[in-house]
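Hey, I was hoping to borrow your eyes for a little while. I've been staring at a protein lately and its backbone has me curious. You're getting the sequence in one-letter code plus the fold written as tokens. Would you mind checking whether the tokens look sensible for this chain? Here's the protein in full, and shout if anything looks odd to you:
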Amino acid sequence: MSFSLYVLTGGVIVMIILALLSVGRLFLGPTTADRLVALDTINTFVVGIMILISVITDSIVMVDVAIVYCALSFVGAMFLARYMEGGI
């Protein structure tokens, strides 16, 4: 294994740990806004993990899946924000 593969794998591990910490904020958040921000943060980490895994495995398809997931995550976050605001 090359050094860059170790660095990328370490990045995936760090992002998984940070996503798990965000899950704690998702469940323990004092307000609904905190929970929504934690959910959006988790989605961002998932997209980053998917991109790093696609670089590690040299898979272009995973990048396409990450782009679609990112777009759906954005639409979902906008929907939830609008719902919280009382616009729906």
